[in-house]
């Protein structure tokens, strides 16, 4: 049986942790509210009611999550309202989106190593280590995500 108070605490704890990592707090609350909903999709009013905030308070979060492709907006037939849902395997999709970021960070770090005079300086060596990490992630993440997909088919 679902414990709504425990679910509410879970949503808030996850949102707080995501905020610690730099994710906007309200976006974290919204994505977690959608994650724990038994319904396929919710309106902004329904999300606001579940989170104890006005629909206007979550509109920015919905816009942000839609831009990240973590949330899909769908019109409600015969209404001016929209419903919001998470795509099927959103965490996989978000992971795929990280690969280009790692490539960009590795390229920027390469420029940083050159700007610092190479790996012979302490700062150059630190930035080179950063570059190596991002290159590793760029190379390894696609295979890891493919393993996930193979083990968790739609």
Structure characterization notes:
This protein is mainly alpha-helical. It folds into two domains: 4-85, Orthogonal Bundle (Arc Repressor Mutant, subunit A), CATH 1.10.10; 90-151. 69% of the residues lie in helices and 6% in strands. The chain has helices spanning 4-20, 25-36, 44-51, 55-67, 90-115, 122-151; strands at 42-43, 72-75, 82-85. A three-stranded antiparallel β-sheet has the order 1-3-2. The longest helix is centred in the C-terminal third of the chain and has 30 residues, at 122-151.
Give Rg in angstroms: 20 Å
Question: Could you tell me the number of beta strands?
Answer: 3
N- to C-terminal separation?
26 Å
The run of helices and strands is HHEHHEEHH
Q: What is the topological layout?
A:
Layout: H1 4-20, H2 25-36, E1 42-43, H3 44-51, H4 55-67, E2 72-75, E3 82-85, H5 90-115, H6 122-151
Antiparallel strand pairs: 1-3, 2-3
Helix pairs in contact: 1-2, 2-4, 3-4, 5-6
Brief overview, please?
By secondary structure, this protein is mostly helical. 69% of the residues lie in helices and 6% in strands. It has helices spanning 4-20, 25-36, 44-51, 55-67, 90-115, 122-151; strands at residues 42-43, 72-75, 82-85.
Provide keyphrases for this structure.
single chain, 154 residues, mainly alpha, Arc Repressor Mutant, subunit A, 2 domains, three-stranded antiparallel β-sheet, 69% helix, 6% strand
């Amino acid at each position: 049986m679902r414990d709504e108070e425990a679910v509410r605490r879970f949503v808030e704890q996850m949102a707080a942790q995501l905020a610690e990592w730099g994710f906007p707090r309200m976006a974290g609350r919204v994505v977690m509210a959608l994650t724990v909903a038994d319904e396929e999709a919710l309106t902004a009013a329904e999300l606001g009611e579940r989170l104890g905030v006005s629909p206007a308070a979550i509109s920015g979060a919905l816009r942000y999550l839609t831009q990240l492709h973590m949330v899909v907006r769908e019109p409600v037939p015969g209404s001016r309202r929209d419903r919001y849902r998470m795509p099927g395997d959103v965490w996989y999709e978000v992971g795929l989106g990280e690969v280009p970021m790692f490539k960009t960070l590795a390229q920027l770090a390469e420029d940083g190593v050159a700007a610092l005079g190479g790996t012979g300086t302490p700062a150059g060596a630190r930035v080179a280590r950063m570059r190596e990490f991002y290159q590793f992630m760029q190379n390894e993440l696609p295979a890891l995500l493919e393993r996930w997909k193979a083990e968790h088919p739609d």
